[in-house]
Design goal:
The protein is of the alpha/beta class. It is 13% helix and 26% strand. It contains three helices and ten strands; from the N terminus they run H-H-E-E-E-E-E-E-H-E-E-E-E. The strands form two sheets. Strands 1, 4, 8, 9 and 10 form a five-stranded mixed β-sheet that branches. A hairpin with a 6-residue loop joins strand 8 and strand 9. It is globular. It starts with 7 loop residues before the first helix and ends with a strand.
Length: 212
Amino acid sequence: MDRKLVSRRDMVENCIVRGLLVAGVPMASSNLFALWQKAEETSLKPTPVEVLGPFFKKGAPEAKNLRAAGDPGVPLKVSGLVMNTRGEKIEGAKVDIWQADHHGIYDVKGFRYRTKLVTGAAAEYGIDTVMPGHYSDRPAQHIHYMITAPGHKTLITQLYFATDPFFEGDPDKNFHKKGIVDNRDLIKPVMLFEAPGAAHAAVKFDICMEKA
């Protein structure tokens, strides 16, 4: 027996008629469908999940400057906004960040290149660090994140860099090379600033969390 294909609109309108989808105030079913569709279209895509990795360490201090004077490596500014899929800014989100140093080594005894920030009313975060180095187990440069916020699912993810030689100049083609990166969306463009005496790189990495 042939089954009739049901469009999304038919499905939603059927739910409205059956009382499975209702509005807080009386309105026509056509208006309710339009409102539902608009909400769906404006919802944001959550940041993809990545592995925690073996180098996470609790108790990192709150610090925005992770780079000490004389540290080798390309100075790097990382900044972003923490929001949810509804587009709401999340105040009070706790953002754990950790990475390897320029040589690809993690500090497992202390807290170098580790921090835990708390977002304010603007829901922004930012750090001054260095471009992390490569190491054999994870040959792509990356920075680890773990974000927690009341009423939201804990998010564990990673930031990667489009300029990384690992991607051979084409992240779209090579992002999944050796199974290192699961999602192309985590590879972000890098801005380079060559001001005299202040050459550095900068990356913007916004975080989008799901409601619990």
